[in-house]
Every structure is written in structure tokens, then in C-alpha cells.
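Quick question, first post here. What does this chain look like in 3D?
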Amino acid sequence: MSLDIQRPEATPARRAESELADREATRPGPLFRPDVDIAENADEVIVWADLPGVSTERLRVGLEDGVLSIDGETEPESASLGTPVYAEYRSGAFQRRFTLSERIDPSRIRATLRDGVLELRLPKAERHRSRRIEVTA
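> Answer (accepted):
Ran it through. C-alpha cells below.
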């Protein structure tokens, strides 16, 4: 895989995430770091992020200063369901950051959320796409 998305441990965004984890939260509830899968083909990089329980209304995907951010919150639990006796699933907020290289065309990034999985399609800039050169004889 090329360095269209830098490895999380090497990016300024990852260091910022670590610093955020050490700080006191400004809102109640846990903050989760969603698991992601990343694939690359000749035209784009594709990122899938697991965001269980997050709706499109509570999801924010942004790009600022070359840092792609994913922020989401699960729906608050309904008190009408009763008092939890035992619960393994915790609701809270999701947050993840990636530093993008100049090889990505930021104006064409697309995002879709389906069945708790966010899919981000990060098209490569035209000048960085691989292409086949025809040879004539």
C-alpha cells in the first residue's frame, strides 16, 4: 500500500488522538476509536470504519488542513426500555483522524453509511493515478 493515508502511529493526528485520550473529557460517556479497514486500487483508497449504532444525523466527516476526521455518537439509550440489569454494549462517541497526502483529491471524497459501517472513497488526484502507456511500433 502506498502512503496515501499514513500509518496511524506515524501521523500528527494519531499523536493528537493520544493527547486527547490523556485529557479529561468535556462530555459524559466513553470515547471509542472505531476499527478501520483500508484498501487501495489504481484510482482510489477506500476506508471502512465500524460505527455501530451511529446514524447519519449523528455522524460528521470533515477534512481540514489535510486531516480527515470521523466523529459520531450513538443514540442515547431510551429510559422507556427500563433499567439495565446487564449490558455488554456501551454507547458513546466515536472519533478517528487520518492525515491525507497530496495524492488524494479532497474535492471528490465520498462517504456512505450503511448497516453501521462508514465507507469513505478517497479518489487519487489525476496526476497520481497509475495509467497504462500504449506502445506503438
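The chain has a mean pLDDT of 81.
The first strand starts at residue 31 and ends at 32.
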